[in-house]
């Protein structure tokens, strides 16, 4: 991410403002100088800056602290740096802790220190702004039953699901594990005229052949060992509603013929009985296999394939629709905040780029698990590369490079936070003494206290 930013300088002594502008423009920033708080507000309304640098004492009705507060109202990502004279350090510290300022500096300004502070503030502002824009993009993303889609392929799949919902067609949803096949199937049910009737999901690959028939169609007392009473099957439970046959490509061939009979005449026969029972059930199927190839391999009945494949929906793997990753990340951050009682505001562009470049063999489910883990372990307000888990190993170039074993070591930020907490405890909360022990300036310590939310 480039650190180049738009900087607004508010200084009632024009020569001082121009000197700051010249120094920062040499670092590649774009700068604009105004001489009063009122002019600053006009400028910010026209173009919200990434960073506002304001002298505290201004000639007009507004002081610098009021300018910084106004800047955050107009641009929530804007970072403020307050310039004070010697003797106003306490005021400046209050501005950081209570007023939301990024940092403060005292006159006379050290140009190199100013460039470093502005660079860090610019990175923070650019990250927050990009996350703000991403949240707007998320709000504009196509959503069907809470399923997020920004890519053309996923939008098309959701629109197809929406149109099929009120039809009478049997649907097969194709896609790798974790692409959201069950979510799509549930959305079809929820938007159909069967929405008030039962929704019954069945994993055909998770039930042995000997039990699957009884699970689907039920059995009568004495049909087999331990069949001590009559039992209704899942098709009977789904009567009037929808049954979702997940991983239907793994259904044993013998069961396929029995399923075909149900689909053709709407009748099931319990195991051990000869009496047919009529059911009104819509069938939605899903598979991660190529059913046409399975038919060619004689592992799937051709007649059943044509009976269930009246309409299909194809879900691409996440690696083939990377436009969906960013809105999904922000959607999962919002969900994780509610679940784990956190207040994560977004994610850095560098970290998002790593997530977008990873192949995601577990698709959307894997992405959601990673974001949940990152939110839990994040100590700041923004997810960063240091929050990436060691499993899966996410890397910008190779996808298969381990990051760090979290259980074996702390990150630098975690170590830094612990060191600050320890120093403050040793000195009874005296920040000046703690800063001296840590070998950092008091101003830096105040900023770190705010960054790590140390209370």
Notes on the protein architecture:
By secondary structure, the chain is of the alpha/beta class. The protein has 4 domains: 6-130, Response regulator (Rossmann fold, 3-Layer(aba) Sandwich); 141-151 and 319-401, Helicase, Ruva Protein, domain 3 (Orthogonal Bundle); 167-315, 3-Layer(aba) Sandwich (Rossmann fold); 410-455, Homeodomain-like (Arc Repressor Mutant, subunit A, Orthogonal Bundle), CATH 1.10.10.60. Helices cover 46% and strands 15% of the residues. It has helices at 14-25, 37-46, 64-74, 89-97, 111-140, 152-165, 181-190, 209-217, 234-237, 253-265, 291-296, 302-308, 325-340, 349-357, 363-377, 412-426, 431-438, 442-451, and strands spanning 6-10, 30-34, 51-55, 79-84, 103-106, 142-144, 147-149, 171-174, 199-203, 218-219, 231-232, 242-246, 267-269, 276-278, 282-287, 311-314, 346-347, 382-383. Strand 13 (267-269) and strand 14 (276-278) form a beta hairpin. The chain is elongated, with a radius of gyration of 31 Å. It starts with 5 loop residues before the first strand and ends with a helix. Mean pLDDT is 86; it is low at 396-410.
Compute the number of structural domains: 4
Question: Which overall shape is indicated by the principal axes computed on the Cα atoms?
Answer: elongated
Given the structure, what is the number of helices? 18
Instruction: Please mark out the parts with pLDDT under 50 across 5 or more consecutive residues, or reply none.
Output: 396-410
Instruction: Give the mean pLDDT.
Output: 86
**CATH topological fold name of the largest domain:** Rossmann fold
Q: Assign a percent range to the helix content.
A: 40-55%
Please, what is the CATH homologous superfamily of the largest domain?
P-loop containing nucleotide triphosphate hydrolases
Estimated share of beta-strand residues = 15-25%
CATH architecture of the largest domain: 3-Layer(aba) Sandwich
Distance between the termini: 31 Å
Arrangement of strands in the largest sheet: 2-1-3-4-5
Please tell me how large the radius of gyration is: 31 Å
Decide which structural class fits the backbone.
alpha/beta
